[in-house]
Amino acid sequence: MATYNSIGVTYAQTRRPDPRIAATIRRVLGGAATVIDVGAGTGSYEPPETVVAVEPSAVMIAQRPDHAARAVEAIPLADDSADAAMALLTVHHWSDLEAGIGELRRVARRRVVVFTFDPDVNHRFWLLDEYLPEAAAFDSARAVPIDRLAALMGGARVETVPVPHDCTDGFLAAFWRRPEAYLDPRIRAGISMFAQAGEDVVRSGLQRLADDLSSGRWHRRHADLLGRESLDVGYRLLVAEL
Fold it and tell me: What is the span of the domain harbouring residue 106?
């Protein structure tokens, strides 16, 4: 996650927590009185019960609001330090997933919550499937299969998290009904796949998207999406009871 010192500069503006997703995360935390947030970023979705946020990027820490939990760059925490530990849209960046999940289980007394994406579903998203297959191939190298993640968590239930059409958190598939957003460099800067794949990989696909939007071809092809309020584009919550 050290790359976020360079690609996380706009996160506080483009990755604002969506209240509907926030409510789902709070529900699965199950009334935990104390929470540790690992890979915390700018503090999106942190409940007020968060006692420590673990975030290795100084750029991300600098964007955390004044009222946010204390942030540290590693986990110098004792066993069973909090009721729950959570890791939100971060595990696909971890260099040692097994060790990281082990740490979540070590510091949590009752529950571990992970918000991630199912690559088998996410990579069928129209943006990747039709316009950016090369970027999808790059993303596949870091994506974590849901069954592997659930096994590392010691067994976890999996919940689908539909993405609202007006989602305020600008992660990869948040703009499934607002395709023009992907042409905005400021929005792309807050999406790690774009930043890490590089402009050379995505340039031609984005140009084809721009052409299809200009001609109306995208809207004709995806007319079925235009009346949808939410869509399953692969985002999942995994919850393990300890």
Answer: 4-241
Structure pTM? 0.91
Over residues 7-47, the pLDDT tens digits come to 545 666 678 999 999 999 999 999 999 999 999 988 889 99
Cα→Cα distances 183→65, 138, 180, 210, 233, Å: 29, 20, 6, 7, 20
Cα–Cα dist 56/121, whole Å? 29
User: Per residue in 56-98, pLDDT tens?
Assistant: 888 888 888 888 898 988 887 999 999 999 999 999 989 999 9
What CATH number did the domain enclosing 223 receive?
3.40.50.150
If one counts the domains in the chain, the total is 1
Tally of CB atoms within 10 A around 228: 13
